Write the structure tokens for this entry.
Amino acid sequence: MVIGYTTGVYDLFHIGHLNLLKNAKGLCDKLIVGVTVDELVAYKNKKSVIPFEERIEIVRSIKYVDAAIPQENIDKFEMWKKLHFDVLFVGDDWYNSERWQELEKNFKQVGVRIVYFPYTKGTSSTLINQTLLKLRGE
């Protein structure tokens, strides 16, 4: 059985999120999704629009997701120590970044494959937020 893992905030859930989860599930037998807790969202000086409990319930309800768990820490390798997943799915904006090059080395040593998915063009939670602010005249 191939276990896959991915994480995200999943705030203002959109088609890009769904595409990532659908594509990830197609490459593993069991897909575990870490949903970022509100406190961790704040580390980027951001605040989620949808509270954590609602975001995790949305993700849990998606047919491609076998389990949704809180992501309380950005350290993916620490999560691997708990879950022992075989494949890690991430957005391609991280590809070749210094941080991910180091993670790739660590994951390669334990046999974890990293799959980078392209972001869905034309949509993002940031874009949706900006559009809503403009519509509201803020």
Remarks:
- The CA atoms of residues 58 and 96 lie 31 Å apart.
- Residues 98-109 form the longest helix (12 residues).
- The mean pLDDT is 87.
